[in-house]
Amino acid sequence: MNRIKPEDFDRNKHDIKSDINTAPITQTNVVWTPAPTNLSPSNPQSNTTQDIKSPLSSFQSASSQTNKVGAGWKVSTFIFALTATIFGFGWQYHYRTAKSYLSYLNSVQTELQQTSQNSQGKIKTLESQLADEKRKRKDLVENVPLTITEIKFRNENSGTIISGYQTEFYEPEIRYIWWYVTIQNNRDETTSGDLYVKFIKPNGELMSSSSSPTNYSMKESISVSNMSTVSRGWGYDTGGSYKVLGNYRVQFWWNGKIIGEKSFNVY
Fold first, then answer.
1. Does 21 fall in a domain?
2. Which pLDDT tens digit goes with each residue over 12-59?
3. Residues 187, 211: contact at Cβ < 8 Å?
4. Number of compact structural domains in the chain
5. What is the per-residue DSSP string for the chain?
6. d(Cα 234, Cα 198) in Å, to the nearest integer?
7. Is residue 37 assigned to a domain?
8. What is the pLDDT of residues 88-145, one digit of tens each?
9. 203: nearest Cα among 153, 235, 267, 247
10. Would strands 257-266 and 168-169 be described as parallel, antiparallel, or unpaired?
11. Same domain as 197, residue 228
12. What percent of the chain has pLDDT over 90?
């Protein structure tokens, strides 16, 4: 095997360069490559500039888009922060409002409970009073079935009215002193019986006649279903029954109990 010496390498290199420099240029040695359609043969510099600007423009466009995205992100972040702030304030406001409303409801509930307790106490009191009234009414009905609500006096003679209702009478003018009483029935059913009457002189003497019941001046049979007015008089057609001047008392009795009394004066 032949070894290549260094001097042989230098010589061969020189021969290669000489061959390149002395090689004739022929038509077959030149190959024309058409320029790209986007290049201008008349202005290759502009094409180069365009080629340089094209990546720059793409970078600037990408940068612009990046800036837009960044600006949009900032706006979105601001809107989110503003919304969160508003929501936070709104939540605090609604929380405080709800807390205040709950406090108000608690106070109203407490007040209603107190009112209910007071009302229950009043109801119990009224029920107790009603029960007492019922007992009193029951006792009244059992003991006094009739109640006199009004007593009036008038001077008359045989149906002729001499004076109006009054409690002061002039003795020379007196003929009969008529009493008018309004009687209320305390029972559910009609009450019937005798109403006894006493005329008592100023000196305490009972006025009576031969037809008077024992210990009474007169009696009147009555029947009361609900409310009735009863009347009758004591005196003489010629007068003279009230010669004793002073205060006269008239009492009304039922079943041995006095149920009404009123006075008139003779002068």
1. no
2. 555 544 454 555 545 444 455 555 555 555 555 554 445 545 555 555
3. no
4. 2
5. -PPPPHHHHHHHHHHHHHHHHHSPP-GGG----PPPTTS-TT-HHHHHHHHHHHHHHHHHHHHHHHHHHHHHHHHHHHHHHHHHHHHHHHHHHHHHHHHHHHHHHHHHHHHHHHHHHHHHHHHHHHHHHHHHHHHHHHHHHHH--EEEEEEEEEEEETTEE-S-S-SEE-GGG-SEEEEEEEEEE-SSS-EEEEEEEEEE-TTSPEE--TTSPTTSSEEEEEEESSEEEEEEEEE-TT--TT-S-EEEEEEEEETTEEEEEEEEEE-
6. 10
7. no
8. 666 677 677 888 888 888 888 888 988 888 888 889 899 999 998 888 777 767 778 9
9. 247
10. parallel
11. yes
12. 46
150 and 138 part of one domain: no
Looking at the domain assignment, is residue 43 inside a domain? no
Report the percentage of the chain scoring pLDDT > 70. 70
CA distance 193 to 80: 99
pLDDT tens, residue by residue, 175-184: 999 999 999 9
User: Is residue 201 one of the residues assigned to a domain?
Assistant: yes
Residue 251 near residue 204, CB atoms below 8 Å: no
Domain of residue 110, residue span: 65-143
User: Is the whole model's pTM more than 0.85, yes or no?
Assistant: no
Single residue among 96, 125, 143 that ends a domain in this structure: 143
Q: Are 243 and 234 in contact (CB under 8 A)?
A: no
Q: Are residues 97 and 149 in the same domain?
A: no
Q: Extract the tokens encoding 128.
A: 């107790």
